[in-house]
Structure formats: C-alpha cells, structure tokens
Amino acid sequence: MSETTQQTLQYRFDGPEDAPVLILGPSLGTTWHMWDRQISDLIQHWRVFRYDLPGHGGAPARPATAVGELADRLLATLDGLGVQRFGYAGCSLGGAIGADLALRHPQRVASLALVASSARFGSADEFRQRGVIVRTNGLEPMARTAPERWFTQGFAAAQSAIVEWAVQMVRTTDPGCYIAACEALAAFDIRTELGRIGVPTLVLVGAEDQVTGPGDARTLVAGIPDARLALVPGASHLAPVEQPGAVTDLLLTHFSTAWQDTQAAIPAPFFTPRLSAPVLPVAEITAATAQPVAEPGGRPDPYQPGMKIRREVLGDAHVDGVMAASDDFTGDFQELVTRYAWGEVWNRDGLDRRMRSGVTLTALVASGHLEGLAAHVSAALRNGLTPAEIREVLLQTAVYCGIPAAGAAFTIAQSVIQAETTPRA
After folding, report:
1. Distance in angstroms (rounded) separating the CA atoms of residues 417 and 419
2. What is the pLDDT along the chain (425 residues), one digit of tens a residue?
3. Alpha helix (H) ranges present in 271-424?
4. 422-to-36, 129, 173, 358 alpha-carbon distances in Å
5. β-pairing, 279-280 with 227-232?
6. Can you say whether residue 28 is alpha, beta or left, with left for phi > 0 and alpha for psi between -120 and 50 degrees?
7. CB of 385 within 8 A of CB of 376?
8. Which residues of 151-224 form beta strands (DSSP E)?
C-alpha cells in the first residue's frame, strides 16, 4: 500500500459536479450515513462530500491519534480530487476536524458549521478511560450506551430501528481506530485559539445534548469572532438524525448566506423552516490566557511539555489532586518532578509510553514504593498495556523482586484494573 493511500480517507460524492463543494464530517462511532437525511436538500445547491473516519463504516483501519492528523488525511484526499475550497459542516469529532482546518488552513474553508462540537471535549480522563474499556472489553459497552448519549429518551423509545442502526454503527467500528479517536479527542483543546477562526461559523447544538451541550456551544460562540448559535429543540447529540428538518434548514441558511467567496456564493433558498430553531447573536468575545514558556539559558523550559505528558499519562484528576495538595513547602518538589521526570525523561523518544509504563511498574515493585503503584497501573492501561500484559509484568517482578512484593502489587493492580475496565452503568 502506497504512502499516499495511507494518508487518504474513504469518501463519497453526491450532487452536481459543477456545484461548490460542501463537506460533511461524522462523529466518533458513526459513518457518513449519519447525514443521509440532509442529502436530498443539500445537493440542490452543493456537491456534497462525505467521508468516514478510519476504521468506521468499513474504511481501512489506519488509526490516527490526533485531530490534526485526521484533518491532514482529509486534505490529502481533497487534494487528490482537485478540491481546493469548500464549506465544511462536522458533528462532534467531525466538528473538531473542521475547526482544525479553519485554524491551520483558513484559505481552504469558505464557511464552517460546528454541530454538537466543543473547543475541548469534556476531560481527557474521560476519553482515555473509554479507550481502556474498549481495549479490555471490546466495543460492546460503547455500542450499548450509544443511544443514551446520542438521542433523547423519547426519540430512542419511539425509533427502535434508528437506535439499532446506531448501535450497529458502533459495533462494526474497528476497536483500534475507536481508541485512537478517543486519544485524539482527549488531546484536543483549542480554547485559547478560537479567536483565530476567521470564517463565518454556525454553532449548532441540540437543546438536550448531554455530551457537548449548549454550554460548550456558547464557549465556541464567545470565542469565534463571526459566530452564531442555533439551538435545536427536541434534539440531543446526533441532532442531524433526531431533528433532520431543522438541521437541514439551518445548514441551508448558513451556507447560502455566509460563504466567504463571492464567486462561489449560492442564492439563498426559499423555504419555510420545519421546526423552530432559534439562531442567537454572537456573544462578546472573551480573551483567553495562556502561560508563556520560559526559556532559561536559551533552552526551552521542559515544564509545560512535562505537565502535558504528566496529565496525559496520569490523568487530569490525579494531577489536579496532587497540585491542589501542593503548598509552599512541596511546590518546588512538584515543579522538579514535572520538569525533569516528565518533561525530560518521559518526553524522550527512546522508548514508547507502553514500555515506559512497564519499566515504571517494575521499578515501583522493586523499590517497595507501592504507594505510587495504583496511579501507574491506571497510567499503564491508558498507555496501551492490557490487563494481561500488566499481569505478566508483575509475574516477572515476582522472580526478580520477591514474592511478597509482587503479591502486594497484584492486590493493588487487581483493584485498579477492576475499577478501570468495568463499563460504566
């Protein structure tokens, strides 16, 4: 398989070949079919391009662990097709890809719609925990709980066929690609960059969305200079599926009136909205603050990269707890640990994180410092070690570090693994 093929995505076109291109991006666990109920109206005005995420909808299982990597693959696909400028609407992870394109390739994006999206998707811990559950139990727990995340209770109860279709979409996703997409969402955070999105943006959200709800949408609107908020009543996370008429009308209005290219502008369609979905004016832009990275002696300070890695490996909740407990007496020690253990050693290229987790577990057992073992068992699961591999690491320590030390480690690890890999009710 060529490198070019590795960098492209599975896609389909609908609509007239000479019309401007409108891209529709899917959410995690769905396929391009999540947009089926918008197509017949949209192709009256645009050539609609839909794509599948890696390992979704039968697409080749080539995992991507960063939103930017997914955006690059989409651009490589479009470049191969000769598509240079386009409108873009994306749902959830698909919205994150659109925001990344608007930030890094603004000349390509004519207009943007972010559906059920966010500048940061919950907590990094939540998505890494999803990865641990899928790695241990497969996708069935995610498939079973998808309807309650995606739809309102009334819709799920009344539309059993659509609910079963949604469950099957998740079940047929490649687990490795799903885990990689969770990593991409865990690392995604553009809160300090929203002011650089310079294209007209519609932020569309289901009024009952419990995943990326109206609060997340208002954060986007407050930060993006030319943004409007649309609340869709009676919809949860997959608003295009649950309220297709309202979502279609909002997309038609937005892309017909906010296309940033006069030569490609489309006349506004005449239609009566099929469901009231209030579009609210842009909120006041708020300034985001960011800590500058110091460069003592001309060398980049490893503290910020160290804190990023520390959070990725140990989880936000653990690090927040440690930092909250820090005071004038222990603060310098925590800074040293962040800067040198995480920013220098864990940040080196010589070993991957799986290997570093295995080494760390062994070192903690050998040294008898079991008070830190629980956090690093959780970290090992996040870094890709399976429960079976952790068991093998601890069995090896029994030979070289002693039965009592390994026995105590097994007790701690067993408790952590049960808690981390049991699907949430």
Report:
1. 5
2. 444 456 899 999 999 999 999 999 999 999 999 999 999 999 999 999 999 999 999 999 999 999 999 999 999 999 999 999 999 999 999 999 999 999 999 999 999 999 999 999 988 888 888 999 999 999 999 999 999 999 999 999 999 999 999 999 999 999 999 999 999 999 999 999 999 999 999 999 999 999 999 999 999 999 999 999 999 999 999 999 999 999 999 999 999 988 865 344 444 433 334 444 554 443 332 323 333 344 445 568 899 999 989 988 898 888 989 999 989 899 999 999 999 999 999 999 889 988 999 999 999 999 999 999 999 999 999 888 899 999 999 999 999 999 999 999 999 999 999 988 888 65
3. 303-314, 316-325, 331-336, 353-367, 373-382, 387-401, 403-421
4. 34, 10, 20, 22
5. antiparallel
6. beta
7. no
8. 201-206
Residue at 52: amino acid letter: D
| Bridge-based pairing state of the strands 47-51 and 86-91 | unpaired
In DSSP terms, 21 is beta-bridged to 47, 86
Sequence-ordered strand ranges (E) for 225-340: 227-232, 279-280
- Residue by residue, DSSP assigns 90-141 as EETHHHHHHHHHHHH-GGGEEEEEEES--SS-S-HHHHHHHHHHHHHH-SHH
Task: List phi, psi (to 5°) of 267.
Answer: -60, 140
- Is the Cβ–Cβ distance between 338 and 298 less than 8 Å? no
Encoding tokens for residue 184? 């991409």
**What tokens were used for 2?**
């060529």
